[in-house]
């Protein structure tokens, strides 16, 4: 069984002590490809460096809404240069976060829109972070897709919206990213919603080192735990795990245009 972790932050400090071992455990667990998004310019540079060092790692570059105030012309230019790297497969992690509000909302929206423009220029999909900002995220994405309907859309990562938002995102061409919270005992909305979404538009992710799935909740997350998410999703969709894994892997290949051998 082969799985693709469509979102993990291997460049972050919690992995500094055992990054090679983390990647080894991922491969042993059947996680053969990992996409590492950036959160700011520095981490985007690290993501590209990791992708250059490890054959199974691909990168995305972008500035997270928490750091939207850092996105000036110089940073945007450097992101554009990084996006030329052959193993950069997306612009991200970008979006809006009105839950923590670590950057002014107007600046979050500006940074989001400017990086969507960059994605269109580079013909790359986007990895979108959304928290308590569904209405504004959808409005911005609708305008972007109206102007750039001929290019890949992207992924709404670690999806936490409702069924209405999911369906609107699907209409725009987006995929829905499913992470560790789907395994939690107190999860209600997501498990009820997933059987009503097309499996051809789902991908899975760890968001490591965050959102650790059950039964490891409370510990550092890592890509080797991705099969736990796949198994829970297979239960919810009432699908054989191997069949689902094949579909999820193909979905990830399609959205990120991963030119890698299958099987």
Largest sheet: 8 strands, parallel
The CATH superfamily is identified as Metal-dependent hydrolases
Please state how the strands of the largest beta sheet are arranged side by side: 1-2-3-4-5-6-7-8
- The termini sit apart by 8 Å
- Counted beta strands: 8
Can you tell me the residue ranges where pLDDT is under 50 for at least 5 consecutive residues?
none
Shape: globular
CATH topology: TIM Barrel
Task: Tell me the β content.
Answer: 15-25%
CATH class: Alpha Beta
Number of domains in the coordinates?
1
Specify the helix fraction band.
Answer: 40-55%
What is the number of helices? 9
Structural class, by secondary structure, is alpha/beta
CATH architecture: Alpha-Beta Barrel
- Average residue pLDDT: 96
Note the run of SSEs as H and E: EHEHEHEHEHEHEHEHH
Which terms summarize this structure?
263 residues; alpha/beta; TIM Barrel; eight-stranded parallel β-sheet
Description of the structure:
This protein has a single domain, classed as Metal-dependent hydrolases (TIM Barrel), CATH 3.20.20. Helix content is 41%, strand content 16%. The protein has nine helices and eight strands. Strands 1-2-3-4-5-6-7-8 form an eight-stranded parallel β-sheet. Helix 2 (41-53) packs parallel to helix 3 (73-82) and helix 4 packs parallel to helix 5 (134-147). The chain is globular, with a radius of gyration of 17 Å.
Ordered list of secondary-structure elements with their pairings:
Layout: E1 3-5, H1 19-28, E2 31-37, H2 41-53, E3 57-61, H3 73-82, E4 88-97, H4 105-122, E5 126-131, H5 134-147, E6 154-156, H6 163-171, E7 174-178, H7 189-193, E8 202-204, H8 226-237, H9 241-256
Parallel strand pairs: 1-2, 2-3, 3-4, 4-5, 5-6, 6-7, 7-8
């Amino acid at each position: 069984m082969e799985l693709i972790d469509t979102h993990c932050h291997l460049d972050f400090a919690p992995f500094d002590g055992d990054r090679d071992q983390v990647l080894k455990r991922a491969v042993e667990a059947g996680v053969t490809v990992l996409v590492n998004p950036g959160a700011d310019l520095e981490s985007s540079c690290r993501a590209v460096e990791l992708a250059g060092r490890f054959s199974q790692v691909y990168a995305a570059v972008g500035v997270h809404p928490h750091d939207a105030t850092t996105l000036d012309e110089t940073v945007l230019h450097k992101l554009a240069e990084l996006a030329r790297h052959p193993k950069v497969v997306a612009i991200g992690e970008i979006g809006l976060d009105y839950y923590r509000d670590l950057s002014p909302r107007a600046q979050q929206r500006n940074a989001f829109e400017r990086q969507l423009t960059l994605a269109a220029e580079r013909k790359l999909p986007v990895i979108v972070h959304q928290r308590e900002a569904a209405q504004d995220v959808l409005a911005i994405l609708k305008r972007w897709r109206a102007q750039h309907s001929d290019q890949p859309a992207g992924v709404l990562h670690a999806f936490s919206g409702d069924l209405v938002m999911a369906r609107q995102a699907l209409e725009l061409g987006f995929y829905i990213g499913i992470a560790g919270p789907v395994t939690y005992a107190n999860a209600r909305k997501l498990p009820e919603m997933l059987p009503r979404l097309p499996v051809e538009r789902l991908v899975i992710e760890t968001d490591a080192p965050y959102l650790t799935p059950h039964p490891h909740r409370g510990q550092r997350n890592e890509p080797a735990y991705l099969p736990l998410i796949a198994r829970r999703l297979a239960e919810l969709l009432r699908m054989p795990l191997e069949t689902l894994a094949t579909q999820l892997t193909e979905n990830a290949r399609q959205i990120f245009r991963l030119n890698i051998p299958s099987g």
